[in-house]
Write a structure and sequence with these properties.
The structure holds two protein chains of two kinds.
Chain A lengths: L12 H15 L5 H13 L3 H12 L1 H9 L1 H7 L9 E5 L4 E6 L8 H4 L4 H4 L1 H6 L4 H7 L9 E6 L5 E5 L11 H5 L4 H5 L16
Parallel strand pairs in A: 1-4, 2-3
Helix pairs in contact in A: 3-4, 4-5
Chain B lengths: L2 H4 L10 E3 L19 E11 L2 H4 L9 E9 H4 L10 E7 L5
Antiparallel strand pairs in B: 1-2, 2-3, 3-4
The chains are: A alpha/beta, B alpha+beta.
């Protein structure tokens, strides 16, 4: 291997392939640079807030929850989220069942709804370990699942995408939809975390 | 895309016990190695989708294959699985991968 000098790093094989393909597509008029930049900006804009909004609505509205479990994509559209091409299955956590999502073959993820997946979701250790030792992996995320609770691992290995509907934490009665949505993090929607009520900071007054 | 339009008939219903083919063809295969040869139960029918192995070869993938959500017991899949006896793993299995 040729020794590089300075801070210059040569492109990797796949980076080079991506650049070549992109330039070819632009050159041949299939797409424009603006369209690519626009799509990338739109992707960066999407975040797990969309999934969190669906969860909060489901916690407050049993009829919506039933529709969401029957057809996740339609339930997303009902809240005004455009999810073209997404075939979403929502899996519900209960007191007896905990769900966790993975894509062992690549990094399938409901990007239309949750935005870009975190790096660890795409990593080989997560993808290979969570299927065979889910309890250990969840514990590493700080999520301890009692032995009597069934764990369901969902490998999104083909055409469907998955999102977890977490259990609503106790002590959130009378909370507003917006406040409830604030409890639902990206990791809750993947199933490696549970919604946590922020502990009140100790203040001298209370 | 509905099953009716495509005329592809799912051979297995929800609750049916099915076994994944143990095979190792070359190409773009969406059936992970770790589940090949294992038996599980159909949890739901997801619809019918063009065969990804054909799509990867620039063909149309038709007729679309029924896609099943199959639930497997973890202790059947992984020898020496440490975790709850009721723990399961679910995958999407195309009909042509079921024997």
């Amino acid at each position: 291997m040729r020794k590089e000098t300075g801070s210059y790093q040569p492109y990797s094989y796949f980076q080079l392939m991506e650049i070549s393909l992109r330039e070819l597509l632009v050159e041949k008029g299939v797409v424009t640079e603006d369209a690519i930049a626009g799509a990338m900006a739109a992707m960066r804009e999407r975040g797990p807030e969309r999934g969190a909004a669906m969860v909060a609505r489901a916690w407050l509205d049993p009829a919506y929850k039933a529709r969401m479990l029957a057809d996740g994509s339609r339930a997303a559209e009902e809240l005004g989220f455009e999810v073209p091409g997404l075939r979403l299955i929502v899996v519900e956590n209960t007191s007896d069942t905990h769900n966790v999502i993975v894509c062992t073959l690549c990094s399938c993820y409901p990007r239309m709804l949750l935005g870009l997946p975190p790096e660890w979701y795409k990593s080989r250790p997560y993808r290979s370990r969570v299927v065979r030792e889910p309890r250990k992996v969840l514990a590493e995320f700080g999520t301890k699942i009692p032995p009597k609770v069934q764990i369901r691992v969902h490998d999104s290995n083909a055409d469907m995408r998955y999102m977890v509907l977490p259990l609503r934490p106790a002590g959130t009665e009378r909370w507003s939809e917006e406040r409830l949505a604030g409890l639902v993090t990206r990791d809750c929607l993947i199933g490696v975390a549970l919604p946590q009520i922020p502990k009140k900071p100790k203040s001298r007054k209370s | 895309m509905t099953l009716e339009k495509l005329g592809t008939v799912p051979l297995y219903g929800v609750g049916a016990r099915v076994r994944v083919r143990r095979a190792a063809p070359l190409g773009h295969i969406r059936t992970p190695f770790y589940i090949r040869g294992h038996a599980g139960v159909v949890e739901r029918i997801c619809g019918a989708f063009p065969n990804p192995e054909e799509l990867a070869q620039q063909r149309d993938g038709l007729p679309a294959q029924p896609l099943y959500r199959v639930r497997f017991r973890q202790k059947d899949v992984w020898p020496g699985y440490r975790g709850g006896a009721s723990d399961v793993i679910e995958l999407e299995i195309f009909q042509h991968w079921i024997e």
